[in-house]
Amino acid sequence: MSDLDLQTVIALLEDASCVMIAAHDRPDGDATGAILGLAHLLSARGKTVRLHGLAPLPNRYKFLVEEQALNFCLEDCRETEKPDIFVVLDCGASDRCDAFSHRDAEDVPVLNIDHHHSNTFFGRYNWVEPEASSTSEMITRLAFKAGWEISLPAAEALWVGIITDTGRFIYENTRAATLQVAARLIELGVEPAKLGSSLYHEESWKTINLKTRALQSLQSKWNNRVAWFSLSSKDFAEFDADPSDSSELVDLARNISGVLLGIFFYELPGSSETKVSIRTKPPLNAIELVQRFGGGGHKRAAGCSILQPLANAQAALFAELETLWGDKLKT
Ligand SMILES: [Mn+2]
Question: How far is ligand 1, taken at its centre, from the CA of residue 127, in Å?
Fold first, then answer.
């Protein structure tokens, strides 16, 4: 599905002296890992690297840059030098990347590197591999193919991207090739237990409070095949938290026995916009539902945004759900 081969991607990056890198808005583990991984790789090759849209880094991934002397800045630093290429990572459509919409120089070629089935090929160059587990897996393969040195910080960032997007190697996107790449990262010094502990055993009290509040709102219907919960902007304010403190909460709904569709609704603080995060089990394809609201993602994990307060957004989502999968889920 890609319109260029790996050698061309390598050449595009090698030929650039200043590279701007961004990913989808509200970066998850894969977006963060791919951005930081590529930034480390390219700055080690003497490139000026500018990140756009990663600051502030989500709390749960901050450990990746603590105690590190970075050769690139995490803050938005577009103004200083015009990039030769703009790499957009892990982003299925250009409207999911604020940095893309607000780039200053439209003539800078865009290199789109991604693994979403729904990718719209919005770049001048597009390297899209829907069969890859994660964008971080693609960046790791790119580095191996190019023969670039992979420092430990780069390897750790890429590892985090791979394990978060594969649900710690249990989702359907976990292939032999994924584990082969991961094995090579371990050979480079990655310690799975250390990173796993930082990722999964260091939940903040904000996250625990949000989780408790969300579970108090848990409901189900249609023989418990659909389960959902929600957080309002008031909930976030009460715990001085933001939506990045509630990432992956939706898994709790999906993980319930018999549930085929788990939904997490949350209001964006300070707006009347509701985000909807979806997890499915076979045979449901999450993309079919969120596409009706302009969203995207993967078969088992997808999301969309509804420009309505919580209650209205829920009503709108359930109306579409009834039309789309009512027959399948009620019987
Ligand atoms: Mn991804």
Answer: 14
The burial class, CB within 10 Å (0-12 / 13-18 / 19+), for 206 is: middle
- From the CA atom positions of the chain, what is the Rg in Å? 20
Beta bridge partners of 48: 18
Report d(CA 295, CA 275) in Å as an integer: 10
Domains and CATH numbers, the chain: 6-200 (3.90.1640.10), 205-330 (3.10.310.30)
Q: By the 8 A CB rule, do 42 and 49 touch?
A: yes
Instruction: List average pLDDT for each run of 10 residues in the chain, which is 331 residues long.
Output: 83 96 93 97 94 85 88 70 93 89 84 94 96 98 97 97 96 96 98 97 94 97 97 96 90 97 95 95 96 93 96 98 94 80
Find the 206 Cα to ligand 1 centroid distance in Å. Answer: 25
Say how many Å lie between the CA of residue 223 and the centre of ligand 1: 32
Are 305 and 275 in contact by the 8 Å Cβ rule? The answer is yes
**Ligand 1 centroid – CA 144 distance (Å):** 19
Cα–Cα distance, 282 to 261 (Å, whole number):
9
Cα dist from 316 to 19, 218, 249, 293, whole Å: 41, 18, 21, 9
Distance (Å) from CA 128 to ligand 1 centroid: 11
Hey, what are 325's tokens? 């999968």
Residues with CB under 5 A from ligand 1 (ion): 30, 90, 134-135, 165
User: What's the CA-to-centroid distance between 238 and ligand 1, angstroms?
Assistant: 31
User: What b/e readout covers 50-69, taking b as 16+ CB neighbours within 10 angstroms?
Assistant: bbbbbeebbbbbebbbeeee
